[in-house]
Amino acid sequence: MAMDIEVRYFAAARAAAGVDSARFNAGTLSSILAQASANNPALAHVIDQCSFLVDSLAVHDLEMPVNAGSFIDVLPRFAGG
């Protein structure tokens, strides 16, 4: 299976991941996030506190399927407004 989903990390998620983005296999949002944090407890901790955009749309259902060619933005809570 090709790694066909791009996950883009921002702010604290980027710091915890150590990269700007990474590619993963398609699946549900929760399974992709599990792939992303499988070997990185710091990232797993940050992801638990994040919101997510899939193809620029806010997603609250972690069991939503994410199709090949999509991108996920991982957005930690931001201070301020």
Estimated radius of gyration:
12 Å
In which order are the strands of the major sheet placed? 2-1-7-4-5
Poorly predicted runs are none
Number of domains as seen in the coordinates: 1
| Range of strand content | 25-35%
Look at the structure and give the CATH class. Answer: Alpha Beta
Helix content: 25-40%
User: Total number of helical segments?
Assistant: 3
Shape annotation: globular
Mean of the pLDDT scores? 93
CATH-assigned homologous superfamily: Beta-grasp domain
User: What is the subunit arrangement here?
Assistant: single chain
What structural class is derived from the secondary structure elements? alpha+beta
CATH fold name, please? Ubiquitin-like (UB roll)
- Give me the count of strands: 7
Between the first and last Cα atoms, what is the distance in angstroms? 41 Å
Query: Which architecture would the CATH scheme give at its second level?
Result: Roll
Please give a structural write-up:
The chain is of the alpha+beta class. The chain has a single domain (5-75), classed as Beta-grasp domain (Ubiquitin-like (UB roll)), CATH 3.10.20. It is built from three helices and seven strands. The protein has helices spanning 12-17, 29-37, 41-47, and strands spanning 5-9, 21-24, 27-28, 51-54, 57-59, 65-66, 71-75. The strands form two sheets. It has a five-stranded mixed beta sheet. A hairpin with a 2-residue loop joins strand 4 (51-54) and strand 5 (57-59). Helix 2 runs antiparallel to helix 3 (41-47). The protein is globular and about 25 Å long. The N and C termini lie far apart (41 Å).
